[in-house]
Design a protein that fits this description.
With 112 residues, the chain is mostly helical. It is 46% helix and 4% strand. The chain has 2 domains: 8-33; 49-108, DNA polymerase, domain 1 (Orthogonal Bundle), CATH 1.10.150. The protein has 4 helices and 2 strands. It is rod-shaped.
Length: 112
């Protein structure tokens, strides 16, 4: 009787190594295939975004603000009749003091 070309442990190692390689390749390919609209778009330096007239797209250009928070900001603006000051953003669910400080240099409030 012929002995198998690989021992049981060697065969198991080859199978596990191939599975790890396949998963790692899939992760890399997925990361490279992300649509450009999901990529972060940084607000231009020095440009002020008026919280009382900004669109959801404008707000999503700010670091740390995605689709959900931008919609919450717009809803809060509608309920309040506009923001009186930048700090009013802290009343929006998901806007933390740290997030406010991160975006403060790009935002402002014109009279509601």
């Amino acid at each position: 009787m012929k002995s198998p070309p690989f021992k049981k442990a060697e065969a198991l190692f080859v199978v596990v190594a191939a599975a790890v390689f396949a998963v790692a390749s899939g992760v890399v390919l997925y990361a490279r295939s992300r649509p450009p609209e999901l990529e972060f778009v940084r607000a231009e330096e020095g440009v002020r975004i008026d919280l009382n007239s900004a669109t959801a797209t404008d707000l999503r250009a700010l670091p740390g603000i995605g689709a959900v928070i931008s919609e919450r900001i717009i809803e809060a603006r509608k309920r309040k009749g506009g923001f009186a000051r930048v700090e009013d953003l802290l009343e929006v669910k998901g806007v933390t003091p740290e997030l406010l400080e991160r975006v403060r240099r790009w935002i402002g409030v014109e009279t509601p």
